[in-house]
């Protein structure tokens, strides 16, 4: 039996409750599939692992092909200009997901799957009254937003079941972008997200160079249902590889239809709100321009036929309609999973239906100016590793697992830092930093360093096995800020650290 698979299964067996050990022990004794190369055919990888069992068919059919649902907006209770006041309630809810009419219990914000769309403008003051009606403590993390540390929904600030709190922050100028919100309580994040807790947060600019285009949000999420149309808990393979569902939903719907007129340019905002799935997105046959990343617009449009989004990442894409129907698809991608099947088929995420021809204005040649960050005052190295022989520390940062009471680094407000993030593990790991956006300077693919081809603001960057990145950032606000793998099961098992930013 392949050594990596044996160590993986043996470590899991020692770490899991007795009820979950039997299947793992069975595989560890050699009753599983033969070794294979999980990154075969991909130009970003090259390690050898074990071929897992084939993917099984979904247990429940979902309705599909309905018009793309709009994200329900969160109501603004304020009548004051520049101020947004809303309420979010996290609670169990029953929704009709199955085609046969059976309902499913999800955990949702305001009963909506996904959560309500929060849409504000640069400079606005945002106040969100949050109520926790879950059976677990939770928080709301404002992913990617430059908010004070005490408002960021960190695990050290949990909201207990039955309790409430107010999140309040003011958005700075030049903060327009596609952000999102989700729970971040240590030990419960993965479950709360796969049960449905996630929502889009859009910060707009009043001087948006693409403001004339139709703006369509596409929040992509994973769903798994058992034969009873219930959301099952994580399996041992989920804890090792990160959970992928049986369906990829777009705005909560399976393979919906977006109508796009021939010649019409549409701005697609795309969120990867899955726990672990890497999405290699394409719109075959369409003219597509990359115009934005996590932190908003890039400097100039770029022709890109594919966009790869790891968990937590966002992108903005301008697509021109055509007279023929088409589809948004996720192309095959192998991320080095150890126990579960890779995605080797092309998944249709949404259909594009044509409509009568319309004329659209040309894209601007320049979208914004992003000044390069100056030379750093501090350089650090972050190493992502897997240790299958140690069930208490299988996923580590710099050899350690997360400790809420420990600051791994001490930084300074306004100080430029440059981090070299190295993935010495056997699978892809998306790296996320709280409190600010960073600029990726260069990437190492195992053969050498290459400069990043364009400048952008990001808060997540994907690192395939054996790869590294150099990134540069400034923290503008003091407080404890986390950095971690955004595969939620890896984060929960300790692949997370903290930097104490001091004024």
- Per DSSP E runs of 2 or more residues, the count of β-strands stands at 33
- Give the strand order of the largest sheet, numbering strands 1, 2, ... along the chain: 13-12-11-15-20-17-18
Number of helical elements? 5
Strand share of the residues? Answer: 35-45%
For the structure shown, list the relevant keywords.
503 residues; disordered N terminus; 7-stranded mixed sheet; 6-stranded mixed sheet; Immunoglobulin-like; mainly beta
Report on this structure.
Helix 1 (3-15) runs antiparallel to helix 2 (18-31). The protein has 503 residues and is mainly beta. The strands form seven sheets. The chain has a seven-stranded mixed beta sheet, with no helix packed on it. It has a six-stranded mixed beta sheet with strand order 24-23-26-31-28-29, with no helix packed on it. The chain has a five-stranded mixed beta sheet with strand order 14-22-21-16-19, with no helix packed on it. The protein has five helices and 33 strands. Helix content is 9%, strand content 39%. Among the domains are: 3-50, no CATH class; 214-219 and 243-333 and 340-355, Cupredoxins -  blue copper proteins (Immunoglobulin-like, Sandwich), CATH 2.60.40; 378-502, Cupredoxins -  blue copper proteins (Immunoglobulin-like). Residues 48-58 have a biased composition (Low complexity). Residues 29-58 are annotated as: Disordered. This is Copper oxidase.
